[in-house]
Structures are given as structure tokens and as C-alpha cells.
Specification:
- The structure is a homodimer of 257-residue chains.
- Chain A has 257 residues and is α/β, with parallel strands linked by helices.
- Chain A has 13 helices and eleven strands.
- In chain A, the strands form two sheets. In chain A, strands 7-6-5-10-8-11-9 form a seven-stranded parallel beta sheet, sandwiched between helices. A four-stranded mixed beta sheet of chain A has the order 1-4-2-3, sandwiched between helices.
- In chain A, helix 8 links the parallel strand 5 and strand 6.
- The termini of chain A are far apart.
């Protein structure tokens, strides 16, 4: 039986999870769209709660739907209703709600790795997702997000991370406290910023246990956090600055070498 | 006098330039929104054609408007009309149309530099803009775009480039032909891709005259182009691949060192 009503409880809830952080936090659930991302979530070991597929998608993505059905209920909705539900202009027609991982338990795992990325108020979901994807690809052991970062569990972050957000150990904490903890564990912590004491990237080798702090897109690393760190800068010319995700890619690359 | 009608010719034309490549190509004009980007265009020496500002913006951005008025006519439109015109959710209320630079004249300038970035069917405007910004910041001498790349003059590319698109020498040509030309000028040309003959990035030093080819987000570098190039790969783990803009950032960084 296919659902067609906008008032259907599952539709209301699914639509809300895609759009509102408050709802995601309250219910401990995230939501993603698209065949690839739904399957990435499953293969990363996420606990799925329910799935919705449009009539067209049910016919088009038979195998994917079968795979999802093995771990949770899949409900068919009319194409129009899927369009209403979706955040995307041209949706594929597959939606999955899953359980948010308690990332706070990850700090020990992250600290047992050799390289860490710390994000201080990175506010753009696209940037955040891209950084998670890059960090995983380059073998960074984990990502620590400070208060004020974009939501790791927003659909946009999950999409930009191409599923890395499901796999990479990450945790959200107070940034200044995290920097202190990371330093106590023997890591050299570098804030990416330009000041008189900043070392030029490439002019030194990162110690085996290293961490880099990337700051806010507009304001950089906060003064409190910067005061706890060594500084590193990427020499640039012409353009005023690098995009935060591009800077993170270059810094992770140098750390991972 | 302020314009309030959606049928006003300037409004119709401005709205079209923001949305349609065909119109931009026909008229040889581009369009941008936002105080910063409009001023970047002027200071890069672009020839402005006209500007539109919302009533609110005219009061709020007095200095910027005065600066724009020195080089072209500024017309005030109602806030509602600006919202209709704009591509953005919460527009600042400043629009500028300017003359598209004939980037084809740039090939000689690009070839006289030491480092070149070549883009083979990079289709996402956000990626393209980010790559231009990164390339300029890292001192790459120019960017060669193959047929099939996103439009350099789309508002999204210009925005993501943070103005670098106005300043960085770039040209759009047939990619295979460009690779041959670049090689004839003594550049070592590397396609970013994984194959048996690819060298690991970091395991060799780029020659003084080097160029890197970044391929399409989904399909990578085309076979024809790859056949003309040496190969380089960025060692990754976990994630399936790097975002094209992140890969470009790392490759430009290594080339620029």
C-alpha cells in the first residue's frame, strides 16, 4: 500500500528530520537521501529505522531497495509525496532514517591514533562534510568538532562527506578543553593561522603525533584556542585566503605524509 | 526613481544573465551578486555595464554603491523586485553585470608561467570556483579549461572563486590539443588518476615547468587526455576518493612547493 497523504505521521517525521536539527537531536535520528548514501549508511553499520521510496524509485532501484528491506521496513510513497518530502531538486526517491551514533564515546579512539583534525566553529555543512571525507581518505585518525560547528548529522554534511561521517571517529566537545586533552596525550597541536609566530607549512616536519586546528570560515581560529597552540600557515599569494576545506586538505596531506 | 515592475527590461535581462549560460554567451556579459564580489570585479579591472540595488541595500551599503556609481549606472529596485531577480535565499541586494573577458587570449600568458592547472570536464560550478581560488592562492600561473567544464562565468562559479575567476589567467579550449601544446612548451604534464604507471604524489619532485590535469568528478580524466600524460596519484584509504577540489588543492600545493 502506498502512502499519498502529507499528513501521514512517517512523512511528517521524515520531512522534519531532513530539515531540523532540533528534531534530529530530540529523536536521536538522522536522515539521508539517495541510493549511494543510504547504502553507505548500512554498510558502515548504522542502525536503520525506516526507509521511504517513491513509486518510481521502487521500480528503478530494485536491488538497493531489497538490500534496505533486509534491515528495516521500506514504505512506498507516491512520487508527488516524495517530492514534497525531499530536500532535493531532482531526488532519486530513496530516504533512510537511522540512529545517530553517540560520537562522544570516540574521544579515546581518536586519541589513540597518530593524527587528529580539530574543527573550531566550521559553520558551512558543505565544508564540514568535505573535511570529513578528506580526513578519512588521508588516514587522519579522527576529527574533533568544537561547539559551534555545523551539524555532522545534517543531510548536507552527510552528503558532502560521501559517507565518511558514518565511518570516521568524530566527537563534539568544548574546543579549548579538547586541545588541552590532546596536548596532554603528547600531540603537537597546530592552529592554522597567520601570525608572527606561525611556521610556514612545508618548512618543518609534523611530529608523529600531530593535530591541526581549522578555524571558522570568516573569523579563523578563536583567540582562546589559538593561545593554546603552535601556529602554522600555508603561504599564499593573489587570492585573499584559501577555502577552509582546501586548507584542511593541504594540512591533512602534510600531516599524513 | 525606483523600479518595481517585473517587466522592466533591465530586470528581465539581469535575471536572465544570472540564470542562463546561453544569454551570457550571446550578450558577452556575466552577472554577480553581493557587495564583496561586485567590488572584486571592479578592482580586477572588469568593465561593468550596470548595477541594480535594492532600496534597503542602497541605504545599507552607501560606500559600496558610491564606488560602483563611479564606473557604471546604478538603478534602485524595490526590495520585492530584488528578491524576484535574485538567485539567493537572503540576498544582500546588490547586482552587477559586467563584460566577459575573452579568456582565449590568455593561453600565451599561461604558457609563460611555470605551473598550470588543466581541468578536463570538471562539471560542478562549486568545485570549479574552489579550484580557481586555490590555484590563484598557491601561485599557479593559469588554468586551462577543457570543453565540457562548468561555466567560469556562472554566478555560482564566480562566488565560489571569491573573485579569483576575475584575476587568474584562464582559457577554454579542446583539452587534448591543450595538453599537446603545453607539452611542446616543455611542461611535464601529469594526469591525476590511479593506474599501474601512476607515480605516488610525494615520491617525486615536480619539474620546474609542470602541469596537472584534474578530471571529471565521476569519471576522472578522459582516456584520450590520459594517454598523453604521465600519471600521478594521491594515496588514500578508507574513503573511496577525494573530492575533486580537495585533490586539486593537494596537487597544486605540491606543484607550488
Amino acid at each position: 500500500m502506498k502512502i499519498t497523504s502529507r499528513k501521514n505521521q512517517l512523512v511528517v517525521q521524515s520531512r522534519g528530520l531532513l530539515r531540523e536539527k532540533r528534531l534530529r537531536d530530540e529523536e536521536g535520528l538522522f536522515a539521508v537521501e539517495g541510493v549511494k548514501l543510504c547504502l553507505e549508511a548500512l554498510s558502515a553499520g548504522i542502525t536503520p529505522k525506516w526507509a521511504l521510496v517513491s513509486e518510481t524509485a521502487a521500480e528503478k532501484f530494485v536491488e538497493a531497495v531489497r538490500e534496505i528491506e533486509q534491515s528495516c521496513a521500506v514504505t512506498v510513497v507516491s512520487d508527488d509525496l516524495y517530492d514534497y518530502l525531499s530536500e532535493q531538486k531532482t531526488p532519486q526517491g530513496i530516504f533512510l532514517a537511522g540512529q545517530i551514533l553517540d560520537k562522544s564515546v570516540n574521544l579515546d579512539r581518536i586519541l589513540s591514533s597518530g593524527k587528529i583534525l580539530l574543527l573550531d566553529c566550521v559553520q558551512d555543512s558543505g565544508n564540514l562534510g568535505a573535511m570529513l571525507r578528506t580526513a578519512e581518505a588521508l588516514g587522519i585518525g579522527g576529527v574533533i568538532l568544537g561547539d559551534g560547528c555545523a551539524d555532522v548529522w545534517s543531510p548536507k554534511t552527510l552528503r558532502a562527506s560521501m559517507g565518511s561521517a558514518f565511518r570516521l571517529p568524530a566527537c563534539a566537545v568544548d574546543m579549548a578543553g579538547a586541545v588541552k586533552t590532546v596536548k596532554e596525550k603528547g600531540f603537537a597541536v597546530y592552529a592554522a593561522m597567520l601570525d608572527d609566530t606561525a611556521q610556514r607549512l612545508g618548512s618543518f616536519a609534523f611530529p608523529e603525533k600531530s593535530a591541526v586546528v581549522i578555524g571558522n570560515e570568516g573569523h579563523g581560529v578563536s583567540a582562546e584556542v589559538a593561545g593554546l597552540c603552535q601556529k602554522v600557515y600555508i603561504p599564499i599569494q593573489g587570492a585573499e585566503s584559501l577555502n577552509a576545506a582546501a586548507a584542511a586538505a593541504i594540512l591533512c596531506w602534510e600531516m599524513s605524509k
